[in-house]
Design brief:
196 residues; mainly beta; eight-stranded antiparallel barrel
Length: 196
């Protein structure tokens, strides 16, 4: 919990630094999230897998060197807050990850005007109750009589994006990896975004 507080305070400080400078942007994105690798988990009677989920994020960044006119002019720094969710086939159990990451974004010198290409990498902490392959204990046939609460587990994670933007619109395919206990959880998302 102490690490989570430290990361959140760092993200808040980074937000103020980025917002205080010129050439800052916020990006709101949403898109489908497809699990990578095996997601089979034992449940009541049979193994179940994760279906297609969805991913939403708020990303903010600044381009502090944008007026320099050299190779660094496309380099940006910021952060990202995300929420990703899946439901297991034929069960009520959800798999959710909420995350906070520091990001570095680099805009490649213009190749196809008016489009801008960029690459982005991030790293931080993601909170989830369990990973993709952890046992699933809920079934449609046996509804719990009381709400089951599981303490969130803080896991390190990283994301890798490539994207194209045009004015205020972005399309950003991304791979996110969460180093959960046991087997790593990873997914591919194709996000449509609006840049403000």
């Amino acid at each position: 919990m102490r690490l989570l507080k430290f990361v959140c305070m760092g993200m808040a400080a980074l937000t103020f630094v980025v917002q205080a400078q010129q050439n800052t942007w916020s990006v709101f994105s949403v898109g489908p999230a497809l699990p990578l690798g095996s997601t089979a988990a034992p449940t009541l009677g049979a193994g179940k897998t994760l279906g297609t989920g969805w991913n939403g994020a708020w990303t903010f960044f600044g381009l502090p060197f944008s007026k320099s006119g050299d190779a660094l002019s496309g380099l940006g720094f910021g952060g990202s807050l995300s929420y990703s969710r899946w439901v297991r086939d034929s069960t009520l159990s959800e798999t959710v990850f909420m995350g906070t990451q520091a990001i570095v974004r680099y805009y490649i010198p213009p190749l196809i005007k008016p489009f801008d290409l960029f690459v982005q990498a991030g790293g931080g902490m993601l909170i989830g109750e369990h990973g993709f392959t952890d046992p699933d204990t809920l079934s449609l046939n046996s509804q719990p009589t009381s709400v089951l609460v599981t303490k969130g587990i803080i896991n390190p994670g990283a994301s890798f994006n490539v994207g194209i933007d045009w004015d205020v619109l972005e399309v950003t395919p991304a791979v996110t990896v969460v180093f959960t206990k046991g087997k790593t959880s990873a997914w591919f998302s194709i996000n449509a975004a609006m840049k403000l």
